[in-house]
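Sharing a chain and its predicted structure for anyone who wants a worked example. Both blocks are below, sequence first, tokens second.
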Amino acid sequence: MKSETKKIIKIALPMMVLGLLLGWLLFGGSTTNKQEEHHNHSSEVSEETIWTCSMHPQIRQKEPGNCPICGMDLIPLESNSNSDLDPMAISMSKTALELANVSTEIVGKTNPVKLIKLNGKIEADERSVYSQSSHIPGRIERLMVNFTGEYINKGQIIAYIYSPDLVTAQEELFEARKVVETQPQFFNAAKEKLRNWKLSDKQIAQILQSGTVSEQLPIHSDVSGYVTQKMVNLGDYVNKGKALYQIANLSSVWGLFDIYETDMPWIKKGDEVAFTVPSLPGETFTGKIAYIDPVINPQTRVAKARIEIKNVDFRLKPEMFASGTVEAKLPLTSKAIVIPKSAVMWTGERSVVYVKNESSKEVSFVLRDVILGPSLGNSFVVKDGLREGEEIAVNGTFSIDAAAQLEGKPSMMNPEGGPAMTGHNHGGMNMGGSKEIKGVDHSKMNMSKTTGEDKKDQNSISERINTTELFRTQLKKVFYTYLKLKDALVNDDSSKASGYAKEMSLAMRNVDMKQLTDKNAHDQWMTISKEISKSATAISETLDVEKQRNYFKNMSGLISKGIKLFGVNQKVYEQFCPMADNNKGAYWLSITKEIKNPYLGKAMLTCGEVKDEIH
């Protein structure tokens, strides 16, 4: 038994050794290779690391160092970033796009048509207005038409007139008839004299047939139409050629429309005008422009465009108001790029759009400056900046821009990019003695602070900077103008808000920066004042209250930042509404605890709460 066991051990032991040797040869070497491959791969990744600036993400370098713009230490680009993503782009998830109600449209070319609105009146056709006059001198004995507006037919008797000259002419006619056989020329001359007074041959024959002198002569209407003016009364003496009535044939009328100076290049003779009149709702009339005044009225600065309209049923009456539209085709040699007005954000100096870039992993938007051509009503012609086939945001553009500001990307008010100036996200700036946290993406670090949470941590990053009393007084004037601007937005009064914004710009210019002798204080105020002035200018240049509130949100953060740094010798309440800015939340400042919401106005006046006190 023992001998068999020894045999088994002798056979098994060499087999185990052989198996271990084979295992090491097969797997041990490959592990080393894998480690080497992993090491090589890590080295390649390390070599491909891109370094960027947290405050200026458009900066990309292959080596670490300092940001060429702000001097901060560069940090590695996030490993989960899409390497194909433009550093200027703002990426948004599908959920964020839906919440922001972002919609896009592909840019295309078309024949641009400018819709021009015209106001005017219906007038009588001047060519069909006739002055009915007396052809003989005398006294009005009877008037057959006694009021304006009466319709008369051609040949209708409109008045009877007594004329001594007519009596004499009839007596001459009777005497001439006696010698007609011997001196027919006298008889013909007598009849011709009556014809010159517009008596017809039929009337002359009636006078000869009666054989008696008629003291009253009937005056017949020369045209058919409506009496628009009555110029004589019973018993009036009139001379030959005196106008008795003004008669207008209204079977055709004119539409006279005002063309403003700015619209004149787009309207030409032959354009079709579609118009309506208030007294005939639901009906649309059309006519072509037959004439345009060659001279502009110096008082109204308009020229008249005339269209001719058939008015067979006489429903269009002179002095009716009319509202018309002209689809004016612009004089372009080829089709042009046309985009909706909602896609354009205008700062007063620049017009920008957001261009969409889409990959299999994400959707992003890049700010693009464009040069606009003529306005086409609800759209613009784009002269430069976009190509056919590109996709742009046409709705929710302000939400995209707000996200770009928070991430320090180029935005409407900050084309160079950089940290968001909100007063609650300081973007890693050294706020009066606080230490910078190097190697951290400050553009993302404080984004949660805008929700109103962790206010103590937020305020701890800034400390009061000592300055002169004069500087604080000047800053206080800026702050009080800000309060008036806030109250205008509370009352939904965009006109007053624009005026106070101009006043605020003036107050900003009156702040004496020479009072800031400390370099840190000087640099801090330089940055803040520049952005406050930009926001004030933007508010002053628009009467759209929603746009004003968007700029006011940025301004409130800057004013808050300035007051926390320098003080205004005044207790200030920082207030917050979570429903402002499409439920993103927004701050504002007040000197009372009472909530009056400048972002929602009268719709939700008391929405909000006091979040902090600044002393």
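Comments welcome. Confidence is low (pLDDT under 50) at residues 29-46, 79-83, 420-462.
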